[in-house]
Amino acid sequence: MPSLKEFRNRIASVKSTQKITKALQMVAAAKLKRSQSAAEAARPYAERMAAVIANLTAAVKGGDAPKLLAGTGDDQTHLVVVMTSERGLCGGFNTQIVRAARERIGQLENAGKTVKILCVGKKGRDQLRRVYGAMIVDFIDLASYRTIDASAADLVAGRVLDLFEAGAFDVATIFYSKFRSVISQVPTAQQIIPAKPPEGVAAPDLQGALYIYEPNETAILEALLPRYLTGQILRALLENQAGFYGAQMSAMDNATRNAGDMIKKLTLRYNRQRQANITKELIEIISGAEAL
């Protein structure tokens, strides 16, 4: 049985941990509101851009399509872009994204495809390199960015485009977590090369109108597709950031509650041990008095 001093030390240690988890919860809650607003503000632009791309794609003939839209004509080599957070203490947020990426990698390997991995975020790299270390072609560290902005998306998009222009892959898919609520983040996979609008995005209804594009659809697509790629990556990064703070706030709230429950249990055991010691001392005193 632990001594009273050991109980006091453990209670003090858990209380210190509870203060830290409570502080992290409050910080995550403050940052969540800004991140959620940024993620929600990015959705209309990304969805509208996807609708425009879908409309232009319908008007382009196969032979005239830009390479970012038509692809290389093969799907043998796949680039899996895994976007996770730079920090932990967020429950299973990063693990869910990595699990979705691993499932896709397994499917591609079973189909005889070549898989390459681009990690965005330390936590994803740390989990993937244990099994797929040889497949990781690059790692992008965004820890220096206090807030995710267009420059972070340009960095990731630029690296993906460089690999594509070098012929390193045929198909690129990003994996991230779509923010739904504080307690719900949905791991999502989206193909970005060849450009493919997300599911549920349809071309705008022109109501019978005929549009003439100048100079032509192909030239417009060549200018829009890199922006579309950057926009989709920015949206994914913002969704990830909001999801991370939501998951961290939820995890720290659970940790704070668990610390409180542990303090109650330790205090109860401490009081019982203290009472047992007092009772034992009283018995010894009474026994000594009777012996005299």
In short:
The chain has 292 residues and is an alpha/beta fold. Helices cover 61% and strands 14% of the residues.
How is this fold's topology laid out?
Layout lengths: L3 H55 L8 H4 L6 E7 L9 H18 L3 E7 L1 H11 L3 E5 L9 H16 L5 E11 L2 E10 L23 H75 L1
Parallel strand pairs: 1-2, 1-4, 2-3
Antiparallel strand pairs: 4-5
Helix pairs in contact: 1-6, 3-4, 5-6
Characterise the protein shown here.
It is a single chain. By secondary structure, the chain is an alpha/beta fold. The protein is built from 6 helices and 5 strands. The protein has helices spanning 4-58, 67-70, 93-110, 122-132, 150-165, 217-291; strands at 77-83, 114-120, 136-140, 171-181, 184-193. Strands 3-2-1-4-5 form a 5-stranded mixed sheet, sandwiched between helices. α5 (150-165) packs across α6. The longest helix is centred in the C-terminal third of the chain and has 75 residues, at 217-291.
List keywords for this structure.
292 residues, alpha/beta, 5-stranded mixed beta sheet, 5 strands, 61% helix
Spans of at least 5 consecutive residues whose pLDDT stays below 50 are: none
Strand runs, count: 5
Structural class: alpha/beta
Which percent bin holds the helix content? 55-70%
Q: Looking at the structure, what is the overall shape?
A: elongated
- Whole-angstrom Rg: 28 Å
If helices are DSSP runs of H or I spanning 4 or more residues, what is the number of helices?
A: 6
**Mean pLDDT across every amino acid position:** 87
User: How large a portion of the residues is in β-strands, by DSSP E?
Assistant: 5-15%
Strand order of the largest sheet: 3-2-1-4-5
Order of helices and strands: HHEHEHEHEEH
Q: What oligomeric state best describes the polypeptide chains here?
A: single chain
End-to-end Cα distance, whole Å, is 32 Å
Largest sheet: 5 strands, mixed
